Structure to design on (358 residues):
């Protein structure tokens, strides 16, 4: 069967207005997800948010762990992770949205997913702006940078609303302020310090989300991608993932999973430079690439990239509000769309899946 990208619309719009609506939405998500496994087609919702589900059936990846798993019995194979679910900033913009994401994940009881998260909302942009302001504002004025206050308030409000202890992000917020002071002292923001700066977004969102899952009784474990084998070139702000990443990530995630069944919550977007060992980023929107890399590393059949649109549309809905969902896309079409800059996913992410085809 030819590989296609498969889309399922999932969530209804205007969710923030009504709690009842959001429950309805999850029921809908559940019913769509189970049927869309059997039938490759678009599920049209009445103008709602959606999930972009990228299916790479028949992937053949030479990862030692995968070969081992093929020889396991039924009970053993049930211990394998089954898919990747990636949620971007817009899906994680507040405590409420995080709760919805948790509900959504739990509405797939048969999945044992690896969760990849971006930074909350517009955190990455705010951190970059804070860094630029720090260059010229003077060390003593760091705490007056609006973007720093915004990031602090957003994360504090989120942990408070989720009922998690602030200590889960306290060290990161302190280090973030220290880093901005350092930038102010040096009066320069290099690509390398830029990557370190934005990494705080993903490091905090994943810690908050993992803590929340644990709080509601769902065992989860947080991972920083740069600590579990995401090895990249030293091209700060736009690093490439190196081949060594695949076996390393598979070994770590799979090994931890079979020892202790806790849902892995992994930072998107981040890696570790192989020469300098400093934190790198994979280019804007790079969490999609983290998701497909993990999918390829573990030899998973499905990578779900959840977005706030009904799948890939005929046009950016911000440009044309009546854009319609595209029911099917071949990998080549998807790659072309991404290559020419459709924000909905990034080219490199599609490219990794392309490598998994028959
Ligand atoms: N052809 C397209 N189809 C769907 N969405 C598109 C398209 N082109 C651009 N977009 C935009 O991409 C956005 C989703 O991508 P993004 O904001 O990066 O999501 P996230 O932060 O959740 O990863 C949509 O909200 C939409 O505005
Ligand atoms: N937070 C990073 C990485 C990313 O992928 O974000 P999102 O999934 O929200 O596009 C960025 O803004 O570029």
């Amino acid at each position: 069967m030819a590989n296609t990208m498969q889309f399922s619309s999932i969530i209804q719009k205007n969710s923030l207005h009504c709690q009842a609506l959001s429950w309805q939405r999850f029921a809908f998500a559940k019913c769509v997800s189970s049927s869309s496994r059997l039938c490759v087609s678009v599920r049209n919702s009445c103008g709602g948010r959606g999930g972009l589900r990228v299916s790479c059936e028949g992937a053949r990846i030479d990862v030692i762990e995968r070969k081992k798993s093929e020889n396991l019995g039924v009970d053993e194979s049930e211990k394998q992770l089954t898919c990747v679910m990636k949620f971007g900033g817009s899906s994680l913009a507040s405590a409420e949205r995080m709760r919805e994401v948790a509900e959504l994940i739990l509405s797939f009881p048969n999945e044992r997913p690896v969760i990849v998260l971006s930074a909350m909302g517009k955190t990455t942009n705010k951190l970059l702006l804070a860094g630029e302001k720090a260059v010229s504002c003077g060390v003593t004025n760091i705490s007056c940078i609006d973007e720093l206050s915004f990031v602090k308030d957003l994360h504090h409000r989120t942990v408070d609303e989720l009922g998690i202890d602030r200590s889960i992000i306290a060290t990161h917020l302190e280090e973030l302020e220290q880093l901005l002071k350092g930038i102010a002292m040096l009066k320069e923001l290099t690509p390398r310090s830029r990557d370190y700066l934005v990494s705080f977004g993903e490091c905090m969102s994943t810690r908050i989300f993992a803590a929340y899952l644990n709080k509601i009784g769902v065992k989860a474990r947080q991972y920083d991608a740069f600590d579990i084998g995401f090895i990249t070139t030293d091209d700060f702000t736009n690093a490439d993932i190196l081949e060594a990443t695949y076996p390393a990530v598979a070994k770590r995630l799979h090994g931890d999973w079979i020892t202790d069944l806790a849902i892995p919550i992994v930072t998107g977007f981040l890696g570790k430079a192989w020469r300098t060992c400093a934190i790198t980023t994979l280019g804007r929107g790079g969490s999609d690439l983290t998701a497909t890399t993990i999918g390829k590393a573990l030899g998973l059949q499905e990578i779900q990239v959840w977005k706030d649109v009904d799948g890939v549309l005929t046009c950016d809905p911000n440009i044309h509000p009546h854009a319609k969902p595209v029911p099917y896309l071949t990998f080549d079409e998807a790659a072309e769309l991404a290559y020419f800059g459709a924000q909905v996913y990034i080219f490199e992410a599609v490219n990794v899946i392309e490598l998994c085809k028959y």
Observations:
- The first strand starts at residue 4 and ends at 11.
